[in-house]
Structures are given as structure tokens and as C-alpha cells.
């Protein structure tokens, strides 16, 4: 097994640490899943909230703080190392379940989601960077597929468990006891067993070879933080296209988080049925990434992202047009499949293009844009739902997803070196 003194790149060579990080990321996802089914119902049943925009404040608070935490996770992981950032992220999670259980008013819920956003930004970003460090360039898509499958599979399982617990024992405290267990286990694994991976990134940087086509020559090792932010956000076609597509992807997730349980409740479904419907989306999303991440290593990134964003648009249109369990189930399954095609592949694009010396910062900037989508989806969805109804808000998301698919098709180039060479050979 590789040691801190002699790092070796590769999934097989680092299987034990990689598997441990997959388990940690599952616990990160579980922290979100424990509340997704329950909080919209708490808002209406216990706190008497009726305005959709107001109900979605907790999603917006989560998204904004997670986006900001992503930036610091990337910067600090490059500067201080990955493991310290991971541990600090879990410390921020400790008060969250207790605040949700004890909350006397809605602002406690919002405050808990501020802390949860910090936890998610620091821990999820760091596990992404650590896995990319370990596997090296050859199997980056597979690594991201496994990482995101663990995280969003746990979101689905925890959503189901929380819905069941709410059905059996009430909305509080039972569903949130899951979070306390997740935090205790995560602190044990992260503190005792996880090892630092920054030396793996340094090894890859030492072995780094520029692309023969010259596409990345402007992305050399010594970019400033400002240059990295500008390239990832606006000017570099692949990096900035990935950031835009990531924002729209999480716009859909943020809107679904706040809106889907309320939409499904209009058909007089039980909390357990609503939990099942909500779990289908991240469940298919999570399981599908086991296939799509590795598939992007074989067929390339760009077309998988374009097709996935297009499928999300179709799925949202089906959900908006439906009014029953069956139609919503079909729509959420398709939405999960489209998201599975996009999610790990976008992270693989960042890993393909960013230099190992500033990879953590590039991942952080990408995730700032992507996770801003939570807030944009929650606020925009809430405003449209208040003005025009729940179904209109979902139609809006479908239209935005279609536009995003077109933008990727027009602007992003293929970033996977082997697939890019094959495309030029056929040309």
C-alpha cells in the first residue's frame, strides 16, 4: 500500500483509502438526505408557513453557504492540505441535527442549514479533490462516478429512512437522529483512518505532460488565484461551460428540494410516498453514476453532458405535465438518469483541464458556481410558484435546462485526451 513518503497514483494502488473516502462521502450525502423529505412538511405543518419563497429560504441559505465554503475548501486544501479541511467541515455539522430537533421557529431551521452548507462545502469538495489526487488521470471519470454515487445514493437512502421515520414516529425528533449517527461515524473515520493526499497531487504535477494539441498551454502551473477564478468562471471554454452547466444542474436540484414535496402533497400522498418519490431522483442519480463516470472515460465528456442536460429538460417537462404518483415517478427517474450523465462528467472535465498544482482551487471555483444553483433554484422556483403555481415553476426549470444543453453543445470542446484524439482522427 502506498505511504505518505512514497505516493503512487492509481485506483487499484490506493483502493483502501479510496474506499474509505467513498464511505465518508456517503455520510456527507446522508446529512442532506435526512432533512429533504421532512423540512418542507415541517414548514407547513408545524410552523404554518404558506409562501413558497419563504419556505425555500432554507434551501437558499444552504446553497449560498455551501457555494462559499467550496471556494475556501479548494483554496485551503491546496494551501494547508486536504485532511484538515475535511475534519473542520465535520465539526461544523455537529449542531445541525440538534438545531433541527429543538427549533422553536423557522429561523433556527435556516441557521441550521447555514451550518450544513459549510459542512457540505468543506467535506464534499475535499473528498472530490482527494479522490482525483489518488487515481491520477487515467480513471478520473470512474473515480468521480464512485464519489458522487456514494454521496447521492446516501441522499436517497436517508430520504427514504427519514420519510419512514416521520411516518412512524412524527416529523421530530426521529428523522434527525440519523444525522447524529452520521456525524459520529464520520469524525471517527476522518480523524483516525483518512490520510493526506496532497503528495499524490504533487507527484502528478511532476509527471504532468502538456497536450500535443496545445489547448491547455495557457493553463500552466503558476496561475494566480484570480486567474484561476476567471478561467474557470468565464474565459476557458471547457471550464466555464462546466461551471454554467453545473449551476443549472443544481438549480434543478434546489428547486426539487423545496418544491417537489409540496407538489407531490397536492395529490394527498403520505409522507412515505413523498419520501419514495423524492428518493427516486437521487437514487437513480447515485446508482447511474457508477456507469456514467466510467463511460465518460471511454466515450468522452462533452456528448454525455449535452445528452444529460437535454434529458433533464424532458424529465422536468414530464413532471410539470403530471398530477399523479405514476407520472411523477417516471419523471423523477428520468431526471435522475439525466443528472447521472452530467454530474461526475463535469467534475472529470475540471480534472482533465486544471493543472494538478491548482486543481483544488479550480474544483472549488467550479463548485461555487454549481452550488449557487441551489439558491438560484430555490429563490427563482419560489417566486415563480408564488406568482404562477407549482407546475409553472417546474416548466421554468425545464426551459432553463434545455438552454444549458444547447450552450454546452456549442461551446465546450472534448477534454478527455483519448476521446479528443479519436475525434481528430475521424476528422
Automatic annotation (TrEMBL):
It is a multi-pass membrane protein. CDD domains: MFS_MdtG_SLC18_like. Residues 18-416 form the Major facilitator superfamily (MFS) profile domain. The keyword Ubl conjugation does not apply. Keywords: Cell membrane, Membrane, Transmembrane, Transmembrane helix, Transport. Coiled coil: none annotated. This is MFS transporter. The lineage of its organism: Bacteria, Bacillati, Actinomycetota, Actinomycetes, Mycobacteriales.
